[in-house]
Amino acid sequence: MADATSSPHSAQDAAARIRAQIDKLYREGVIHCDDGFTKSLYPTSVTPGRGRFLADLARKLAPRATLEVGMGWGLSTLHLLEGMLQAGGVHQPHVIMDPFQHSNLHGGALRAIREASAMELIEFHEVPAEIHMPKLVEQGRKFDFIFIDGDHRFDGAFVDLVFANKLLVPGGVMAVDDTELDPVYLACRFAETNWNYSFVDGHTDRTSEGAGRHRYRNARPRPQIGAWRKPTAEPERGQVHFNSFVEDFSPYIRINRLKSNRLAHEGLVALREGDREAARRLFRAALQQDPANVKNIFRYLRTYLPPGIARMLTGRSKDAAAD
Ligand SMILES: C[S@@+](CC[C@H](N)C(=O)[O-])C[C@H]1O[C@@H](n2cnc3c(N)ncnc32)[C@H](O)[C@@H]1O
Questions:
Q1: What is the predicted pLDDT for the residue at 308?
Q2: Edge-to-edge strand order for the sheet containing 66-69?
């Protein structure tokens, strides 16, 4: 029986068994498979920090119908089940898709879940998400929480999100792992800009080398795992085929010196006229076109200093005189 809420104790007992299994797996750092195959949990598994993020989400949202793409070694599944059980129960078997659970992963996740006595809490499909999710749409299934950690190539991630959007109830939440990666991030940005999904929360592992790397101009820092909420009302898309979501994404936008110089010139004129707000805006815009332009970085910073101090620090350069 999937619903563990028949007795609050059974839900808490099940959560404790799952927690013990999670702790054991992280402590050992390896997964043991039925065929004797043993493999390190990383880099496939969610880290303890990301797992905690998922368990907290599940605890907070207490979803009733949940779906997961990409089971890996089962750590994300175990965390989601733990969070749901602590919130009262797993009301319907948690639906999971992963075509490679036996061919690549030696059934490791299924064994970990079986050892935690949690098999009855899941509905596992050993098929690609892009094949199974359309079937769920056809069957009219709906979910209030979906976790995506499957094919991380852009086409894979994008298709997962397209079907997740169809399967989520209005106001439902979609969590996505590896959002620091360009293809995954880009798919999530599409959901924000074209479907009006709103960012709920994110997490970045403190020890990760990636934490500071994924800060793109015009964009907030990317988390490594994030959650987005589907709007409660479908956005009216009308004849608009596409809202651009690429402009503030790519670190590879070509530097536009001409535009940068023109904006910086206008900034200097604004400074000369004593309009520091306008100057600041213009230097900021110039830096967006040519981020490494040191002169413009200093010009921009100087708009925050009182004119006297700015002159003292910068000497009587051509633009200091303009202040
Ligand atoms: C990074 S792992 C998931 C790790 C898992 N969340 C965990 O915590 O252990 C990615 C998983 O996606 C699966 N996968 C790859 N392509 C897929 C597809 N088309 N549909 C569903 N799952 C897919 C892989 O087999 C792999 O198990």
A1: 75
A2: 122-125, 94-97, 66-69, 143-148, 168-177, 225-229, 198-203
Determine the residue of 151, 155, 163 to mutate for testing ligand 1's pocket, defined as the one with the most ligand atoms within 8 A of the Cβ atom: 151
Is 165's C-beta closer than 6 angstroms to any atom of ligand 1?
Answer: no
Provide the strand spans (E) within the chain.
30-32, 38-40, 66-69, 94-97, 122-125, 143-148, 168-177, 198-203, 225-229
pLDDT of residue 291: 83
Task: Find how far residue 111's CA is from the centre of its chain.
Answer: 28
- What is the model's pLDDT at position 292? 83
Q: Which pair of tokens denotes residue 302?
A: 């100087």
Cβ neighbour number for residue 220 with a 10 Å cutoff: 11
142/38 Cα distance (integer angstroms):
36
Compute, in angstroms, the gap from residue 197 CA to the centroid of ligand 1.
23
- What is the longest distance spanned by two Cα atoms in the chain? 79
pTM score = 0.76
Give per-residue pLDDT as tens, 96-146: 999 999 999 999 999 999 999 999 999 999 999 999 999 999 999 999 999
Give the integer Cα–Cα distance in Å for 297 and 293.
6
Minimum mean pLDDT range among 234-248, 265-279, 299-313: 234-248
Query: What is the per-residue DSSP string for 13-28?
Result: HHHHHHHHHHHHHHHH
Residue 292: how many other CB atoms lie within 10 Å? 8
Q: How far is the CA of 273 from the centre of ligand 1 (A)?
A: 59
- Segment 266-275, tens digit of pLDDT: 999 988 888 8
The answer, yes or no, to whether residue 249 has pLDDT greater than 60, is no
Give the domains, in start order, of the chain with CATH numbers: 4-229 (3.40.50.150), 257-322 (no CATH)
Distance CA 303, CA 283 (A): 9
